[in-house]
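Need the bound structure for manganese (II) ion, inputs here:
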Amino acid sequence: MSETAQLRVDGQRLWDSIMAIGEIGPGEQGGSCRLALTDEDCEGRNLFIRWCEEIGCSIRIDDMGNIFARRAGRSNDLAPVVAGSHLDTQPHGGKFDGIYGVLAALEALRTLHDNNVTTEAPVEAVVWTNEEGSRFAPAMIASGVYAGLFEKDYAWAITDSDGKSLGDELKRIGYMGDMTCGSNPIGALLEAHIEQGPILETENRQIGVVIGGQGQRWFDLTLKGQDSHAGSTPMPGRRDALVAAAEIISMVKLLALEYAPYGVGTVGQMSVMPNSRNTIPGEVFLTVDIRNPDDAVLAEMTQKFKVCVTDCVNELGVECDIEEIWHCPPVKFDTTCIAAVEHAAQTLGYSNQRIVSGAGHDACQVCQVAPTSMIFVPCAGGLSHNEQESAEPEDLEAGCNVLLHAMLALANS
Ligand code: HGY
Ligand code: MN
Ligand code: MN
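Answer from helper R.:
Posting the output first, comments after.
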């Protein structure tokens, strides 16, 4: 049996680290709010780097703010095996989405450090910038630049609702690193994450061996009607942008249901102008997120969505500008990485099953340029992007043990 077969992570230390980061930018309902590149995100990053330096990791930061904490191997000219995720959260985020994957990677490095284990290839823990795409849309932007899916200038120029750019905010918090994003090769990437869906809990499985991720397409819609008096404007002839929005929101739901069981559609963001109770809204901005594991079906859903929007607004005398801001096709992960995760789960005796990710992840970007897989653990009720998000310490520990042993297998192969 290999000298490392008996290695196990410290589940309590992992849990304590997750809780400690959760104290930064606490939400009002027990979750977290650390939007990308805010002071709270910066504080979480700084704490992560401190923890990595405590175990002797060398730190590199690229010009998208991605953090790579390296534990040297015997052959440091080999591309590293990298594990990690993101520290930024949704506005009403939970304590585990992203954070678990970052701190599970740290816990794996801590375990190697405690046991004085050196791998053949170096191993790294990574924090990807702006995975959520909540403050700066689209999502997974920095892992996307790393994978060559987005130009850096485009990413730096993205602005938040206050007009602040991603590039300026990177500089402001001191995370515009000097390493060119994408210049550091990754030998293999593993990302541990809560499933954010109900499958593992329903199937009573502790580990999800993730074989790929579904595709998603994001749209910005600007509906233009006419401001007018709520009292004296007859119903016929109104050009009410909010009525158009309401019909579109309902249509997105019906479209997703038409493509059940995998199709999903969400309108998550909306602003109404002039937003006055006695003026018919002349303009509405809303976002649409459509997803499906099959890209051809996703294209069909998109086509139908656009036709339905056009029919709806024409009938209401409202103009509509639809801008597709992101198309992230479905991805399949690397068979060697999948096998490493599956073998680790089986050898460690954890119940497991293969699964396709419903949520997007940095791994779904980086898999375009490096062998990649993910490890899922259940979360209560499959709930995520909600402050009540929760997971069992023993499941988090199990996923972290699988991560550790998959990393060892890949770094020593
Ligand atoms: O939208 C997603 O799937 C991810 O949580 N950013
Ligand atoms: Mn996530
Ligand atoms: Mn998320």
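Comments: The chain has two domains: 11-214+330-411, 215-328. The chain has a mean pLDDT of 97.
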